[in-house]
Amino acid sequence: MTYMSEKREYCCRAFRDEDEEEVSQLVENVFVGFLEGRFWKWKYKLNPSFNPSLVMVAEKNGAIIGCNHWLLKKLKLAPSFEAKVILGADVAVDPEYRGKGIGTSLLRSLRSSEIMTKEQPSIAYSFVNPSLAKRFHTPAAGYIPAPDRTVLYFKILNWKKFAENANMLNKQIAAGKFKDRLSKFEVKVLFKIAGAPPLHFCMSEKGVTVSDGEEQNTDLTITGDLVTLQKIRAEKKRKWNLFKALFTMKLRIIGKPRKLLTFYRNFWILQEILSRKVT
């Protein structure tokens, strides 16, 4: 793949073993502020997940004048859900050739390469110097800039903790604590809450079983968002807040009417689980 600038011709291609010395020297010369630039082997070559196909170099007249490194990663968002992502890092261009579009060309060439087509990561992301963002990374290389501000995230729901609370409730049921409130029933519910992985749980007179991930055999499907669920969980009048969320359609319950009535009659079980800490 060859890119033409106004006065210079250069090509962008995948890294080769014989490029190692030039690439490591270029990185050392460019990134003198971090470990004096002497981190190429540690960060890439000796990395167990290093893939030379994810390193692109820019070459002119047989000399390496730029390079772009990527690291393929897997983010486990839930026991049943794992996302493949790719992190772009350490774009280096020889100072003599900067401002000619070489960095953008490196980013574009990798995004359209065979390795990207083969791996098909869900997300490609990069952390850049804000002063370079407008002219270097967007929009030419196809990136979407994140808001330039600090964002605080609060985890308000934890399915693992939810399962632990359910197990505590099951022990109380087995000990006969709620025998006056239980009658023979069974309801299979799927929680599909935006911002959280799917959760399937089955309520019955024996207790609650919880499994992470979608299940096909469900009686009811509850859809909504974490904020609405948090309000229902946090307030004392949970049934009233449930009705209000359903009336305003912030929370939706889809399923068999008979099972919906059974779920309402035994909503106290869910209340018992949610009344404990699930953050």
Descriptive overview:
With 279 residues, this protein is of the alpha+beta class. A six-stranded mixed sheet has the order 1-2-3-4-5-6. It has a five-stranded mixed sheet with strand order 9-8-7-10-11. The chain is elongated. Mean pLDDT is 78; it is low at 1-6 and 152-156. The chain has helices at 20-30, 40-45, 102-111, 114-119, 130-137, 159-174, 226-234, 238-247, 257-265, 267-275; strands at 2-4, 9-14, 55-60, 63-78, 81-93, 123-126, 186-194, 199-204, 207-212, 220-225, 252-255.
List the helices and strands and how they pair.
Elements: E1 2-4, E2 9-14, H1 20-30, H2 40-45, E3 55-60, E4 63-78, E5 81-93, H3 102-111, H4 114-119, E6 123-126, H5 130-137, H6 159-174, E7 186-194, E8 199-204, E9 207-212, E10 220-225, H7 226-234, H8 238-247, E11 252-255, H9 257-265, H10 267-275
Parallel strand pairs: 5-6, 7-10
Antiparallel strand pairs: 1-2, 2-3, 3-4, 4-5, 7-8, 8-9, 10-11
Helix pairs in contact: 6-10, 7-8
